[in-house]
Amino acid sequence: MAFALRVWNVGYPAKILFDETYYAKEAWGILHSGYERKWGEDANAQIAEGDLSGFLDAPSYVVHPPLGKMLIALGEWGFGMTPFGWRISAVVFGTLLVFFTIRLARRLSRSTLVGAMAGLILTFDGLAFVMSRLALLDVFQATFAVAAVSALVADRDWFRHKLADHLRSIGEPDLGGRFGPLLLWRPWRVLAGVLFGASCAVKWNSIFMVAAFGILVVFWDLGARRLAGAGRKQWWSLAIDAPAAFVQLVVVAVPVYIASWFRWLTTDGGYYRQWGVENPDDPVVQRVGAALGALWHYHHEAYNFHTGEKMMQEATHPYEAHPAGWLFMIRPIGIEAVNGIEPGTDGCDAVGTTCLRIISAMGTPLLWWFAAAAIAAAVVWWILGRDWRFGVPLLGIASTYLPWFRYADRPLFFFYAIMIIPFSATVLAMALGKILGPVGHPRRRLRAMAVGIVLALIILNFAFIYPILTADLLTKPAWMLRMWLGNAWI
């Protein structure tokens, strides 16, 4: 269902939208040369007409890793330099994001119904919908990140099952103060390292998730051995399990990240690619060689771009949104706007007013506001109720949300919250599961009605804002009916 919603008419509008001007064109360069290349000044208009003569030979300077653009390039390889071609990979990954959210919620809650609710909620979120229909990087980053967290939760179960199997094999009810089996090979955790590396290879800020969940899994291992009866020897886990976790998550992620630069490293024309050859006396070049030395220099310059004074102090944008308002969706971002369509033009039949076509990257309002309340409740359930399950999506939210406050003095945008909404949807679904209660509860039918009403309201709200997610034709008054926070949403 998510795929069908996202793929329908995804080639419209048939032009480059918003930051597709960077990533769709950079993907085309990677596809044909192994590195990003420049385009002429009028390239966007030319591409819309099927004219690719603006594709230049000179390398382009970019500040994000290549994996997301490589995935966009797969669509362009299959369907050409067309809107469908540069957006179809986002559709696929936006659908996978729903899938992995279902799996995460299902495993955390042990409820297929809760997992289904999480998937349904995310399917009908406006932000996830829009970001799944644009050639931007964020949906790829989010999909890899949620898949990585799902793998870590699977590893938690795997580890505890292995400890239980060990106790059965020795015929004992607990470890009796022994440390227990080493279990250093953790396939799910290695997979999580690969997926985290892929997420960082789309955008760097996934490193905060690696750090946060890397700490969490150490506590999970301690808790598992304590539950199995390791006693004081559970603390050996800090010297045995924790270093293994570092290798499986961080050390594994590093070569995955570097591998995403393979085509840049094995070609000669990329931006800064010859820097190592031109600076043989540089200490890094002397230690790791010209190619990796050039890659290091590239990263140094890109980091300076992201954190330099010009970006932090001088840059402004009309749609910048302080992260303090993200969870309440105070300031969504406009992607496309065609205003002032006169009656009789482009199908406009307005009377006494004009029509417009808008794409706004906004979440489904009721979903986000219900989720904000659920997050507050989940904090209580986690800390006071000691329900570890809520800690996973809450940590997912915190590690993808709180680091942005450090950069709040530069332009930030609401669409970065695509990293948050899968975890918010999970929290909301689990909260609805709490409201529903167990089978046999005397008021379960009434509770089920309440849960059903919440889900129905979310779906109806999505349907109501659908025209401003897809550039459908609207009269200006019809558009204003959907701008519930007035100027904050315009």
TrEMBL record:
Residues 294-486 form the Protein O-mannosyl-transferase C-terminal four TM domain. PANTHER family: DOLICHYL-PHOSPHATE-MANNOSE--PROTEIN MANNOSYLTRANSFERASE, PROTEIN O-MANNOSYL-TRANSFERASE 2. The chain crosses the membrane at residues 84-105, 112-130, 136-154, 204-223, 235-258, 366-383, 413-436, 448-469. It is an enzyme of class 2 (transferase). Keywords: Cell membrane, Glycosyltransferase, Membrane, Transferase, Transmembrane, Transmembrane helix. It is found in: Cell membrane; Endomembrane system. Protein O-mannosyltransferase that catalyzes the transfer of a single mannose residue from a polyprenol phospho-mannosyl lipidic donor to the hydroxyl group of selected serine and threonine residues in acceptor proteins. One of its GO terms (molecular function) is dolichyl-phosphate-mannose-protein mannosyltransferase activity. This is Polyprenol-phosphate-mannose--protein mannosyltransferase. Pathway: Protein modification; protein glycosylation. It holds the Pfam family PMT. Its EC number is 2.4.1.-. It comes from Tessaracoccus flavus.
